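Re: beginner question about structure tokens

> Can someone show what the tokenized structure looks like for a real chain? I only ever see the sequence side.

Sure, here's an example I had lying around. Input first:
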Amino acid sequence: MALDDDDKPPVSIPSPFSGKTFAYGVMKAHHLVWVDQMLIARLTYSNSLHENTNREEEDLDFPLPGVTLDRASGVFYAPSTTGELIPVAHFKKVLFNQSVQLLPNAVVRTVHNSEGEINVILEAIRPADIEKYKNLPRPPTDTQIHIGNPFR
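And the corresponding structure tokens:
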């Protein structure tokens, strides 16, 4: 089944930043953070697959503009293409801290090509539409890493 314009997620926010890391690096860690009124996808890459090199790690931050936080509820919202605010994440209490966790209707995709270039995009659908998107074809998994639950 092919995607037509009606099947594309209503929220699609590419990070304005692209990153560059080890050509054959692997993602070691990923999480979302709320810094200076901006939701940021923080990715850690490692060159640990290379046997003859010193192990190095590199943190890269990708801001996701337009996402807002409702402080009262701890829910993050992103604007759709029609201006509707769609919930995409929430604060989750972890021991003595809070972490940002994606909601089931949202996904952060990363594309890391063989030259080490990285791009990040936040996509979300309306929570009520999860069943509609469940069986649509997903992008190839060899070039994309999903942070969160991709509409499942």
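Each token stands for a local structural state, so reading them left to right follows the chain. The chain has one domain: 5-147.
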